[in-house]
Inverse folding.
């Protein structure tokens, strides 16, 4: 009897210490993840806009699913939806997967140090502030005589034009693609480097060509990393809009390069018409939140579940 | 051995020849199919769902441009295996292959009206350079020039008001859109007249234009045979990186020159040169594009955000990571799986509700002074929260990798959990702290979206937000000064990049919060 109360008290104390260590993280997660997720569900069912703006949640007017029916009938929503599908698929296919794979194959093919240097350069877009990064791309794209691409065009006697007006999607995809490459590149590189040397040597002895080695040795072993990169980067591309906001802001024509996440931002937080529609914008964002939660749960199940099973090092002493 | 001897006796090894042709044709057919799918399937589908894009066309044009080169390179590299033993045969085989491929590609171009056969902007007349101007040599009956009234023997002296020569006129015509009016000043019978010719899109049937391409084709194939294979990866890697490198090179050049055209620094007279340090005057109180702002106040804001973020992320993540790695408590599995879900979850979708959370936090007495709307620490806290799932997960991993003998004996001696964490474990995971610290610092230093969204006044403007304001400035701005501010913002990033590449490469595979 004495024994069990002591150990119970012991367990309780251990629990409390652990919760103490977890408290700061827990509080931040509650304030900035849990509450916002619930709040956006509620916001998307209110008609909060500039005219009836309030930060007092209980004073907001509940209108049920009206925002979602409006969204379904919005003449631009379908264009924006397909813009998003187009943007995500093309960027993913060309840059985040194909180019990442090509670069990791090339950089593992050349001497180690050189390969490392090339991979390091690909990190630069990711660690450069979006504003500076976009400034560089604008310089590449602007009219002659200032634009760098147009300077080449002039040299080769070609027509010059403002690329951001004439080729907006190309640049939106390039700008995001150049950031996205590094993620797949790092994952693929470590996968390629972990391929057993014996396997490579065996294929070399068999006299296989480089193409054959890629096709029959490397690619089959990359199936899992490929799946990981595709799923993870789909979600990133779907929800990130910082670069598009700075580069074209959805233009140059009406909603030409507008994507779903940018629409949510425009509607609720930065409207050109000075009429912010918090409720309606939230309806756009909620759909992304739902996709995000569902995919995140799937990732956890598919990719990292084994790590979870690792037991803690020190059990109750 | 005997087989090889036999084949040396023949001038052409048929099997090598067929392989070379086959490889080239596979490229041509395969890439053509991609172009057809892009233009025939994707483009109509995208148009039907109202996506306004030219990406499919751009990619197709690019592919059409490179198909021949890739084909010649493929066929050229097919004979590389015999080039050492039988160089003459290799050349003969590759030249024959090139001719065959060239014929196939040109036929394709002819049928599909591409390449040399692509319809080009034209004024349907021929002309030659003379001392006084351009002499019209022939005029196509019923063509654009004929309709405008140009006659054989006319002497063109100027286009609009500018004197022009043959190559200049040809360039103008080639660059013109369809139906562009070109006002030509001409001398006819010693009288100056003006004729306006409108450009038309005409089929080129210039078979002579094929010859240069054939020469190029053979040259490419031969280069592919003798090309040193070791440098191919470097060439490809550098080519892909070119736009990025050009951008950064421009940034550095621009900050030290009065103005730039493309990548070239120019002085006032338009000559290359014009080195100046004036763009950096903002560092000691000079105006930035006419705005009198203190760069150091803005830098301080950036630093406050970045440093407070680094400290809080490190402390909070390592505490949680320690608990998850070393303790057993009710709800551990739940917390772990929750961290993982959050790690995958795109926090940036929560920008809208967090606005209301911050606005309401600002109402709390005392605490609200620091973390409400428009406060640097509040902004930092949002970003801390966004990076926590990665941080906690990373820290747990580092703690897991440390043996627990020392810690255990310390605890048996009666040390508290906190002391063990602070004095024994933290020093051991220094590499992990450094990696996460760099990640958090860069995140805070580069932060744009969150400071922009949650702050309005000048009090919290950080460098990226300030830069975006300069760029959006409607008045004409001195771009080289803006570039200098940009490079100024990049300095810490470059320093970290140079000294911590290894850490960066490791950590950016672990998490890509809020960015693609």
């Amino acid at each position: 009897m004495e024994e069990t109360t002591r150990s119970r008290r012991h367990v309780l104390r251990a629990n409390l210490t652990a919760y103490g260590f977890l408290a700061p993280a827990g509080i931040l997660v509650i304030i900035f993840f849990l509450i916002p997720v619930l709040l956006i569900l509620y916001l998307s069912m209110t008609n909060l806009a500039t005219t009836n703006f309030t930060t007092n949640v209980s004073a907001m007017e509940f209108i049920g699913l009206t925002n979602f029916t409006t969204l379904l009938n919005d003449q631009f929503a379908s264009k924006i939806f397909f813009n998003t599908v187009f943007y995500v698929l093309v960027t993913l296919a060309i840059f985040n997967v194909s180019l990442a794979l090509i670069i990791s194959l090339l950089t593992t093919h050349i001497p180690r140090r050189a390969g490392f240097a090339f991979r390091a350069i690909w990190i630069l877009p990711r660690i450069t502030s979006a504003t500076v990064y976009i400034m560089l791309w604008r310089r590449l794209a602007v009219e002659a005589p200032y634009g760098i691409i147009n300077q080449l065009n002039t040299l080769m006697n070609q027509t010059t034009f403002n690329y951001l007006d004439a080729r907006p999607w190309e640049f939106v995809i390039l700008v995001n693609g150049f950031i996205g490459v590094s993620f797949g590149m790092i994952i693929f590189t470590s996968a390629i480097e972990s391929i057993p040397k014996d396997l490579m040597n065996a294929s070399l002895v068999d006299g296989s060509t480089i193409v054959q080695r890629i096709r029959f040795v490397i690619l089959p072993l990359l199936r899992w990393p490929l799946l990981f990169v595709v799923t993870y980067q789909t979600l990133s591309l779907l929800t990130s809009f910082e670069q598009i906001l700075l580069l074209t802001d959805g233009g140059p024509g009406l909603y030409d390069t507008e994507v779903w996440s940018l629409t949510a931002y425009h509607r609720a937080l930065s409207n050109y018409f000075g009429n912010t529609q918090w409720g309606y914008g939230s309806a756009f964002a909620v759909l992304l939140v739902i996709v995000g939660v569902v995919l995140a749960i799937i990732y956890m199940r598919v990719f990292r579940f084994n790590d979870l099973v690792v037991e803690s090092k020190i059990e109750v002493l | 051995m005997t087989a090889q001897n036999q084949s040396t006796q023949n001038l052409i090894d048929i099997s090598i020849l067929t392989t070379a042709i086959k490889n080239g044709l596979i490229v041509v057919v395969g890439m053509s199919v991609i172009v057809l799918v892009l233009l025939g399937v994707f483009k109509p589908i995208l148009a039907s769902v109202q996506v306004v894009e030219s990406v499919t066309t751009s990619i197709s044009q690019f592919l059409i441009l490179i198909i021949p080169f890739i084909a010649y390179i493929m066929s050229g590299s097919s004979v590389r295996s015999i080039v050492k033993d039988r160089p003459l045969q290799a050349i003969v085989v590759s030249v024959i292959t090139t001719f065959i491929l060239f014929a196939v590609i040109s036929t394709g171009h002819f049928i599909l009206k591409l390449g040399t056969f692509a319809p080009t902007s034209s004024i349907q007349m021929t002309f030659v350079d003379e001392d006084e101007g351009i002499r019209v040599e022939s005029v196509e009956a019923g063509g654009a020039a004929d309709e405008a009234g140009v006659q054989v023997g006319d002497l063109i002296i100027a286009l609009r008001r500018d004197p022009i020569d043959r190559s200049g006129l040809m360039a103008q015509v080639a660059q013109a859109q369809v139906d562009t009016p070109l006002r030509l000043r001409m001398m006819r019978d010693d009288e100056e007249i003006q004729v306006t010719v409108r450009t038309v899109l005409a089929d080129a049937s210039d078979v002579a234009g094929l010859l240069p391409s054939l020469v190029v084709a053979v040259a490419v194939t031969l280069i592919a045979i003798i090309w040193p294979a070791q440098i191919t990866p470097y060439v490809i890697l550098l080519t892909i990186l070119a736009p990025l490198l050009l951008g950064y090179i421009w940034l550095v050049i621009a900050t030290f020159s009065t103005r730039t055209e493309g990548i070239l620094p120019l002085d006032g007279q338009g000559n290359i040169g014009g080195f100046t340090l004036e763009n950096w005057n903002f560092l000691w109180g000079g105006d930035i594009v006419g705005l009198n702002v203190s760069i150091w106040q803005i830098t301080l804001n950036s630093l406050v955000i970045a440093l407070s973020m680094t400290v809080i992320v490190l402390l909070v993540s390592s505490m949680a990571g320690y608990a998850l790695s070393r303790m057993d408590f009710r709800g551990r599995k739940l917390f772990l799986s929750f961290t993982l879900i959050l790690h995958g979850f795109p926090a940036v979708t929560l920008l809208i509700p967090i606005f209301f959370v911050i606005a309401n936090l600002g109402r709390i007495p005392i605490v609200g002074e620091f973390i409400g709307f428009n406060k640097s620490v509040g902004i930092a806290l949002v970003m801390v929260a966004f990076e926590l799932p990665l941080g906690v997960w990373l820290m747990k991993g580092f703690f897991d990798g440390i043996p627990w003998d020392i810690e255990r004996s310390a605890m048996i001696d009666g040390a508290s959990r906190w002391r063990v964490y602070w004095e024994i474990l933290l020093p051991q995971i220094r590499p992990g702290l450094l990696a996460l610290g760099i990640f958090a610092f860069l995140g805070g230093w580069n932060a744009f979206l969150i400071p922009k969204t949650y702050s309005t006044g000048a009090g919290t403007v950080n460098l990226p937000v300030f830069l975006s304001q300069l760029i959006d400035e409607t008045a004409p701005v001195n771009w080289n000064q803006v570039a200098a501010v940009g490079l100024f913002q990049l300095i810490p990033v470059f320093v970290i990049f140079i000294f911590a590449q290894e850490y960066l490469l490791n950590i950016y595979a672990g998490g890509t919060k809020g960015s693609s």
